[in-house]
Design brief:
245 residues, mainly alpha, 6 helices, 0% strand, elongated, RGS1-HXK1_interactor, RGS1-HXK1-interacting protein 1, coiled coil
Length: 245
């Protein structure tokens, strides 16, 4: 690298004196030599650009002419086909006057407002009405599905309530059965009390009057204490005890 830099420095040092030795051209030599040369170069470039532009424009013009000729031929073909169709239609109408009259009457019939509305009402209008009915039916189905869901929920609630009512009924039945048993035991106790009272009544009849009064008082006091105890303890079963009366 250092050798290359040294060699380049020597070559530049050798060239620099040559550049310094070359004298600058005077202005008249520039006008006499360089100016005509630059003018000739600019003229040649202008001529070349003009030739290229002419060639390009000629190619574009030729392509445009070809396109116009193609379009003209296609237009002629389509025009011939159109007029041929028109001629065929005219000949067909002339050969079939009944069909032509029917088509003309139907066209005039369609151009009138009333028949056009009638046809629209019975074609597109019917389709629109059917679509509206379909939408309405779909809404009704959705509402019906919602009502069915609500009925299912209500039926579940009713089933739960029925189960609760059945359980309450079973518990009430058991309570009634227990109350019936208690009443039966109470009736038996009352029968026993009545039997004891009848026996004591016979004893009262055989005792003197003063003993009867004391015995009746003691009997009522014992019965009152028994009833108060029964009410306090909420029991309906009378114990089988002997009253003094």
């Amino acid at each position: 690298m250092e050798e290359r830099e040294a060699s380049s420095a020597t070559t530049e040092g050798a060239k620099s004196p040559d550049k310094l030795k070359q004298p600058s051209k005077p202005w008249h030599s520039y006008i006499s030599e360089d100016l005509p040369r630059s003018l000739m170069d600019s003229r040649d470039s202008a001529i070349r650009s003009a030739r290229s532009l002419h060639q390009n424009s000629s190619t574009h013009i030729n392509s445009l002419q070809d396109f116009m000729l193609d379009m003209r031929s296609k237009y002629a073909v389509y025009e011939d086909a159109f007029f041929r169709k028109v001629k065929d239609g005219v000949t067909t109408a002339r050969d079939h006057p009944t069909m032509t009259a029917g088509l003309g009457l139907s066209a005039a019939f369609l151009l009138m407002r009333g028949p056009r509305r009638f046809l629209f009402r019975h074609t597109l209008g019917r389709l629109q009405s059917e679509e509206a009915q379909f939408v309405k039916a779909e809404k009704n189905v959705n509402m019906l599905s919602l009502s069915v869901d609500l009925m299912k929920k209500e039926s579940k609630k009713l089933l739960q309530r029925a189960d609760l009512a059945e359980m309450e009924m079973i518990t009430g039945r058991t309570e009634l059965m227990n109350a019936g048993k208690n009443l039966q035991s109470l009736v038996r106790s009352v029968d026993e009390v009545e039997a004891q009272a009848a026996a004591q009544y016979l004893k009262h009849e055989l005792q003197p009057p003063q003993g009867r009064v004391r015995l009746i008082d003691s009997c009522f006091s014992s019965i009152g204490s028994f009833m108060s105890d029964s009410l306090l303890h909420s029991t309906w079963i009378l114990p089988s005890r002997d009253f003094p009366c």
